[in-house]
Design goal:
The chain has helices spanning 12-45, 53-75. The chain is mainly alpha-helical. The protein has one domain (10-75).
Length: 82
């Protein structure tokens, strides 16, 4: 359980230090979780079919084009029927 801290009672220096500690801890936890996920992906890769990069590139490009088109269409005003 985390101890409650009265932030109003802390000085600017203490608040800055607390923020730095929290940021450091956050980056540490994110790096640890990323390492866990990468290890899990490596384990799962044993069961998957190896994908060829040339096969996936056109799909990714097509998907991106569709997203751009949809984005542009969403921004265009829709004419109302009279």
């Amino acid at each position: 359980m985390i101890a409650k801290i009265d932030l109003d009672s802390l000085s600017i220096e203490e608040l800055a230090s607390l923020r730095e500690q929290a940021t450091d801890k956050l980056f540490e936890k994110v790096a640890a979780r990323r390492a866990e996920l990468e290890a899990e992906l490596e384990q799962l890769a044993k069961y998957g079919k190896p994908a060829k990069k040339s096969d996936t590139a056109p799909i990714a490009k097509a998907k991106k084009s569709d997203e751009v088109r949809e984005s542009k269409e969403a921004k265009e005003p829709v004419a109302k029927a009279a």
